[in-house]
Specification:
Oligomer: homodimer
Subcellular location (chains A, B): Cytoplasm
Helix content of chain A: 40-55%
CATH topology of the largest domain in chain A: Aldehyde Dehydrogenase, Chain A, domain 1
CATH class of the largest domain in chain A: Alpha Beta
Number of helices of chain A: 15
Number of domains of chain A: 2
CATH superfamily of the largest domain in chain A: Aldehyde Dehydrogenase, Chain A, domain 1
Distance between the termini of chain A: 48 Å
Shape of chain A: globular
Largest interface: A-B, 62 and 62 residues
Radius of gyration of chain A: 24 Å
Strand content of chain A: 15-25%
Largest sheet of chain A: 7 strands, parallel
Structural class of chain A: alpha/beta
Strand order of the largest sheet of chain A: 10-9-11-8-7-12-13
EC number (chains A, B): 1.2.1.41
Pathway (chains A, B): Amino-acid biosynthesis; L-proline biosynthesis; L-glutamate 5-semialdehyde from L-glutamate: step 2/2
Enzyme class (chains A, B): oxidoreductase
Function (chains A, B): Catalyzes the NADPH-dependent reduction of L-glutamate 5-phosphate into L-glutamate 5-semialdehyde and phosphate. The product spontaneously undergoes cyclization to form 1-pyrroline-5-carboxylate.
Number of strands of chain A: 16
């Protein structure tokens, strides 16, 4: 039996045990892991150093090395995040719906774990802890398939988890790490329908696209964000500029940052130059349509591809539109259904935008940067879903659950 | 542009219009379709006759021809079912969750349409009407890809729908039927991620398996039902026999019928022969393990494959187990996560069964035949989901919806 199948089988078996664990038992296991990470700090840093050395030898960039790197603070942060997770409500067991039928049947819909979660991710070793603890909190077993660049770090972190679980009532088989980080193990996970209930890719667009395209196991997709702000005719200039700068520059590398601004032609006449100059002053490179290019020097003319591009950098495309309808149509054509905002004082236009723009989160007079599980108050975030089935937008603990109907009778049969 | 792409584009465009339609507008469209089907009855029957004749020439079995066949009563039933659909609550627009943030942001999660639903189905032309009207009720556009064996029937039914919609505010492009029913169009639908938000296969196991395996568009899977009854030591004999007979014989060809009975060894000693004789008397063929085979003549010995088999006929596998744990393990290994029942007077065993059996619907002292959208009181049924994401068990109108966060601010930016 292959490693993937063997560990899949063990995880499945553990998942059945997890179903019956109480919130207290699961929280005790989480507390044990939080403690163990601090106890094992030296060992973790030593193993992490192996990954860093090997990464340097392979010529990884500083930013990649930074993603792999653990230090005392990062270990303390991981441990602290588990402390916060313990405080969150356990969604498992919640009664979602109760139906009393005339024939006396009592039908209840209850929240239950998904079962076994497969997680495929890239460099960051903190995802190992994050994924394992979110899974355990929601009563799920997990199979982790990290990157070879964090091999030693992931291995020592999962050893810590296993050491911690051995002190608790949660079976350590609930957390499985694949030693083999080749492409073949990823492919095997894509088709491990027998043991996996869901597969979650965490990483870049290529990884996610591959998983969505190839996996027969259902996928929770956390997608790209080609997010827009539309500045309507009646937008308050100061507010529009503030939100534009926040959306583009506060953290340009994340999915809820904006990549494009659409501007109403009338607003542009009065305020366009000031907006563009404010963005320039913050180091933002502007790529504009023909009208925008005429406003300031050094603006590059946008081509069709630019409207599709998620720059994830201090680059921004800017386009002029005639009305809110044009803005909505543009966003529905070029957007990635993530986060979209309208800045306007016109309630009717705001309502049209919020209704007709097809995205996980639509904003009126606020920055798209708020699309985040912590900002929404979920206390945890698995990722931000841009798909429409199961979960849409920031995914908290509930996204790692399913439901089940339990029906209580006294011998009823169907007539 | 291919037919699939062209119709996909039209449906997508229609789906954006549908988002803004009121419940009254959607119900008027449904009423118009219900009326039009009756007005067009002669034409529908004439076109249906072409499919029946061509089916006879091709040597289709009587049961397949019966599935294709329409008559006055069936058309009246389709029209009547639309009348019932009109009465159901419109789930669209429902506020699922409201979050007030300290920074003044008002975050609402609202129920919205999925967008465009692709439906791939087999012979029955009534699915054409069913799928189109369920989609319209929930504000979705739909692309229908029926079978060549019902080509003329599907075509005339969609013409009726279009004639009806032309009298209403709902654009007729919302309902698209593919003329080309070749394998190639199905394959194109599997990868039409640009225009399709979900793909729903309705039909046999082969069709569903193919769609799940090949589609990159998210799939709503309606799966097979290898359903069990476990008769525990303390089960009331009369109740157990009644539920077993109902589960197997009331309608053997459906997914919530039972395929297997597990019997506690102690219950078997007192009541086994009576149960088996009662089943025999109803024409049920028994396939049993070694213990069962010794109880009555003419019982075939089960092999490993039998425990996996969904007979969908008056055939039943029967196995003896030592306790509820063995029953649960057997079901989790061989079942299809559909509907499972325990018959017992022991509350602890009932609780263990309901908790640890991994299925969409788990019953205590009732027949598995109740797993049905109408029996559960949903008033409509898209199918019965055996997957764990998005929807599990009988799917009513809500399964055809997604959610969307709308956020109202006064200029908030992220710090």
């Amino acid at each position: 039996m292959s490693e993937v199948k063997e560990k899949g089988k063990l995880a499945k078996s553990a998942s059945y045990e997890l179903i019956g664990k109480t919130t207290a038992e699961k929280n005790e296991a989480l507390a044990a892991i939080a403690e163990q990470l601090l106890l094992d700090q030296e060992e973790i840093l030593a193993e992490n150093k192996k990954d860093l050395l090997s990464g340097k030898e392979k010529g990884f960039s500083d930013s990649v090395l930074d993603r792999i790197m653990l230090n005392e603070k990062r270990i303390a942060d991981m441990s602290g995040a588990i402390g916060q997770l313990i405080q969150l409500n356990d969604p498992i067991g919640e009664i979602i719906e109760t139906i009393h039928k005339e024939n006396g049947l009592l039908i209840e819909s209850k929240r239950v774990p998904l079962g076994v979660i497969g997680m495929i991710y890239e460099a960051r070793p903190n995802v190992t802890i994050d994924a394992a603890t979110l899974a355990l909190k929601t009563g799920n077993a997990v199979i982790l398939r990290g990157s070879s660049s964090a091999y030693h770090s992931n291995k020592v972190l999962v050893s810590s988890i296993h050491r911690a679980l051995e002190k608790t009532t949660i079976v350590k088989d609930a957390v499985q790490l694949l030693d083999d980080t080749s492409r073949e193990t990823a492919k095997e996970l894509f088709h491990l329908n027998e043991y996996l209930d869901v597969l979650i890719p965490r990483g870049g667009k290529n990884l996610i696209d591959t998983v969505v395209r190839e996996s027969t196991v259902p996928v929770l997709e956390t997608g790209a964000g080609n997010c827009h702000i539309y500045i309507d005719e009646s937008a308050q200039p100061e507010m529009a500029v503030r939100i534009a700068i926040n959306g583009k520059t506060q953290r340009p590398s994340v999915c809820n940052a904006i990549e494009s601004i659409l501007i109403h032609e009338e607003w542009l006449k009065e305020n366009g130059v000031q907006l563009l100059e404010s963005l320039h002053a913050k180091g933002v490179k502007i790529i504009g349509d023909e009208t925008i290019c005429k406003l300031l020097p050094d603006i590059q003319l946008a081509d069709e591809d630019d409207w599709y591009t998620e720059y994830l950098a201090l680059t921004l495309s800017v386009k002029v539109v005639g009305n809110v309808k044009e803005a909505i149509d543009h966003i529905n054509q070029y957007g990635t259904k993530h986060s979209e905002a309208i800045i306007t004082e016109n309630k009717q236009n705001a309502e049209a935008f919020l209704t007709y723009v097809d995205a996980a989160a639509v904003y009126h007079n606020a920055s798209t940067r708020f699309t985040d599980g912590f900002e929404f108050g979920f206390g945890a975030e698995i990722g931000i879903s841009t798909q429409k089935l199961h979960a849409r937008g920031p995914m908290g603990l509930k996204a790692l659950t399913s439901s089940k109907y339990t029906i209580h009778g006294e011998g009823q049969i169907r007539g």
